[in-house]
Design a protein that fits this description.
Blueprint: E1 5-8, E2 15-21, E3 24-29, E4 35-39, E5 41-45, E6 49-51, E7 54-63, E8 67-76, E9 82-91, E10 98-107, E11 117-125, E12 141-146
Antiparallel strand pairs: 1-2, 2-3, 3-4, 5-7, 6-7, 7-8, 8-11, 9-10, 10-12
Amino acid sequence: MSDELAWTDPDTNKTGRTSHFERGAIAWTSDDDKTVEFPARRVMRSGHIGVSSVGGWVELVLTSAGTFHFRGHLQNSGFVGLYCTVAAAVRIPGTDKAVAAQREANVGGTTSIDDRDEDWDDSGTTQRSAPTGKPSPRRPRSAPPSTPP
C-alpha cells in the first residue's frame, strides 16, 4: 500500500508520481532521476484593507522550507500624497513567536507627482534577523519576513 498519487510535471508535461509528507511532498517522473520537492505552504490573504484614503490588500505565503512570498497593492484616492507602512504578521502556533513582513511606500495623491498605486511582489528566504535598509524618499522598501529572537 502506498500513498503515491499520479502527477504531471507542470513544466514538462511528463507524467510521474507524487508522495505527500507532513511538511510537504516530493514528485518524480520515470523519464529521469530528478525529484522535485514541494514544501508545505500557508497562504494568508488580508482581504481589503484601508484607512482614510489609502486602501489595498496584502498576501503572505510561508513554506516549511523557510521561503516566503510577500505581495500586495496600495492605492491612494486622496488629495495629498502619503507615506505609509503596511505589515503582515503570522503567529507560529504553540510558540510566542511570529513571522512578519512589511512594505513602506509613498503613494501620491491629486496634488503630488508620485504614483497613486504601489504594487510589490517579493520572494526570498526567511531569516532570524532580517536586513533592513533606510528607504529612499521615492522608492519603497520591503523587508523579508523575520522571526524575533
